[in-house]
């Protein structure tokens, strides 16, 4: 028997896929219900309208995308740098999940520019991201892995850089590629953290 939590997750995944594929303005609740394999009545039971569903879908991606990589045991050498690198990875379109996640964020930016509720939600979501990234940086500073810095300011730098590169990578700008983006972001962030190690890639051969 499928429980309510599992149904909610199925709907959220379907919403993420549908919104990324069609764009928020074209999505109707029935589109999401059909992809999730549920009735529109059940969909409305969990989410009263499109806005609530969209915001919860974004909250879901924030909580899940890249989690498996981030929560995997870090190597003994430079563990804090490894964690920060995984945050950068999860913020760039490196695979199907992160590409979909990036498209959802772009939809949110458009909504936030025109809609007060979406703007307030965006402020909250970025505050959560800033706290998460800043917390990882603060831990690295406390452990002596990073040099003295303002963790929140460096977190903002990470956010601005990954957001900017994500836009170009999402639409396949030939002037940009993933590894070059990672390298450039890491160089600029490393200058703030006093790091000299190269970007810790997920695989020893340097692949993504």
Provide tags for this entry.
208 residues; Tetracycline Repressor, domain 2; Homeodomain-like_sf; Tet_transcr_reg_TetR-rel_C_sf; disordered C terminus; single chain; transcription; repressor; mainly alpha; transcription regulation
Structure description:
It comes from Paractinoplanes globisporus. InterPro entries: BetI_C, Homeodomain-like_sf, HTH-type_TetR-like_transc_reg, HTH_TetR, Tet_transcr_reg_TetR-rel_C_sf. Keywords: DNA-binding, Repressor, Transcription, Transcription regulation. Residues 28-47 bind DNA. The protein is mostly helical. It has two domains: 4-57, Homeodomain-like (Arc Repressor Mutant, subunit A, Orthogonal Bundle), CATH 1.10.10; 65-193, Tetracycline Repressor, domain 2 (Orthogonal Bundle), CATH 1.10.357.10. The chain has ten helices and no strands. The chain starts with a helix and ends in a 15-residue tail after the last helix. Mean pLDDT is 90; it is low at 204-208.
Structure summary:
The chain is an all-alpha fold and 208 residues long. The protein has helices at residues 4-22, 29-36, 40-46, 50-64, 67-71, 79-90, 96-112, 116-143, 151-170, 178-193. Residues 28-47 bind DNA.
Write the layout of secondary structure elements.
Elements: H1 4-22, H2 29-36, H3 40-46, H4 50-64, H5 67-71, H6 79-90, H7 96-112, H8 116-143, H9 151-170, H10 178-193
How far apart the termini lie comes to 38 Å
CATH topology of the largest domain: Tetracycline Repressor, domain 2
DSSP helical segment count: 10
At the fourth level of CATH, the homologous superfamily of the largest domain is Tetracycline Repressor, domain 2
**Which class best fits the helix and strand makeup?**
mainly alpha
The number of E-state strands comes to 0
Mean pLDDT: 90
Which percent bin holds the helix content? over 70%
Q: Choose one word for the global shape.
A: elongated
How large is the share of residues in beta strands? under 5%
CATH class of the largest domain: Mainly Alpha
Helix and strand sequence = HHHHHHHHHH
Organism: Paractinoplanes globisporus
Keywords: DNA-binding, Repressor, Transcription, Transcription regulation
Protein name: TetR/AcrR family transcriptional regulator
Domain HTH tetR-type: 5-65
